[in-house]
Amino acid sequence: MMILVAFIVGLATDLFWTKCVHNVAEKNALWAANWSIMIHVCSLFATYLLIDKDYMAIVAYIVGGYIGTFLTVKYGSIKNE
Questions:
Q1: Where residue 55 falls among pLDDT bands split at 50, 70, 90?
Q2: How much is the pTM?
């Protein structure tokens, strides 16, 4: 169960990063800050995984992050709705 949650959080983290970077580039400070908060929440979860030494969950987090960025850039609509 923790591995699935770690994968989802990793995917979400990189989705949020992609949205944040896009908004920074567009100079949309409010939305960049909103996405930044979500990045920090996900980072706290990743820190917990490191402290807990759940290495398989860490791998799942990294794989989720890769897929999150790929899907957001390839298919995602970068809009703030």
A1: confident
A2: 0.74
